[in-house]
Amino acid sequence: MRLVFGMLLAGATICGSAPARAQFSGEIVKIGVLTDMSGIVSDATGEGSVVAAQLAAEEFGNRVAGKPIQIVFADHQLKPDVGASIARKWFEQDGVDSIVDIPNSAVALAVQEIARTRDRIVLFSSPGTTALTNKFCSPTSIAWTFDTYALARGTAKAVVEGGGKSWYFVTADYAFGHQLQKDASAVVEANGGKVLGASAHPQGTTDFASFLLQAQASRANIVGLANAAGDTVATIKQAEEFGLTAGGQKMAAMLLLLTDVHSLGLQATQGTFLTTPFYWDLNEETRAWSDKFAARRKGQRPTFMQIGVYEAVRHYLQAVEATGSDDAINVIAKMRATPIESAFTHGATIREDGRVVRDMYLAEVKAPKESKGEWDLYKILRTIPAQDLTIPLAESTCPRLKH
């Protein structure tokens, strides 16, 4: 099994004074970034997620409640068994107090179960499955950044309200893609729109010609992309080659990352609608943090998954500082009781099912002539309120909730 490990360990002054009777399991507060260092989402997570965690630790002078902070990381290779093995070793042998990031929903669910049985904290920035806060919700985990429900419903509702009434879906033919299509279709129809059809493709398809020709023939206003990662990238690239956008159809991506848009270029992606929980260029405060990130990433701006790692680690360390403890139950209780405040988020809260309730943004990818720089990629069209993006508690299947 190939593991990629690294760590940051430094000492400096702490921000504020630690509680007088701090209780810790060891002499170090250790945080593990479990991520994809070499696979299909490594640009959007990977080394950037590690940098994000390090930047959060540095805001505390790399010490919290009198203890040094240590950041370790590993590559789960997008394999549940590898991710579970790393998590088990971290918790049982290496003294890791919490794990963050974890792109890939299958890996995330495996790690969540290990953390649950050991009363350890997991903060998910990168997996999208709603199962983390529904059927398999845990008292010691938080879905920090997004889920498929939020992205699909956020984009669909906002686009329909903006005039995109007729839709055709290009959908990945597995549970993730079908859930995206189902959630988005429900919103389209509930808001007076129509779904004219859909084409399902196998994961990892390289030739989208037949699916895109069907979308083009439908004459739908919006081509909804209920897929992710390389499938989304390939769909958008080939849609531009087939002239869908030139012909007046708009693309609406259920899951599109900043690094995807940068890789494809604005010529291919211009006009695509998407929902994002964060964007680096929102204001002076977000740009300042992103400049720090970019300085360590050869100019690359952070994705929303990487920003989520930063914010989750920061909020976790605030709770450790406040409680004077690394005990998972005490720390997670403090995290849930404290509104989230950072450069990117103001007043978000953590529900009992572990879902962070936050506003998000409807964005449109800029045309080349509108961009003022390499990473100036999005126009933020509007804020989408949290209540439009979060599964109502009454509909939740989380067993921890009392209905």
Can you give a write-up of this model?
The structure is a single chain. With 403 residues, this protein is an alpha/beta fold. The protein folds into 2 domains: 6-146 and 282-357, Response regulator (Rossmann fold), CATH 3.40.50.2300; 155-276 and 360-388, 3-Layer(aba) Sandwich (Rossmann fold), CATH 3.40.50. 36% of the residues lie in helices and 21% in strands. It is built from 12 helices and 17 strands. It has helices at 46-58, 80-92, 105-117, 148-161, 175-190, 209-218, 229-241, 258-264, 266-269, 284-296, 304-323, 328-337, and strands at residues 6-9, 29-35, 63-64, 67-75, 98-101, 121-124, 141-143, 166-172, 194-201, 222-226, 250-253, 273-276, 340-341, 346-350, 356-357, 360-365, 378-384. Strands 1, 2, 3, 4, 5, 6 and 7 form a 7-stranded mixed beta sheet that branches. The chain has a 4-stranded parallel beta sheet with strand order 9-8-10-11, sandwiched between helices. Strands 12-16-17 form a 3-stranded antiparallel beta sheet. Strand 10, helix 7 and strand 11 (250-253) form a beta-alpha-beta unit. Helix 2 packs parallel to helix 3. The protein is globular and about 65 Å long. The relative contact order is 0.14. The model is unreliable at 1-21 (pLDDT under 50).
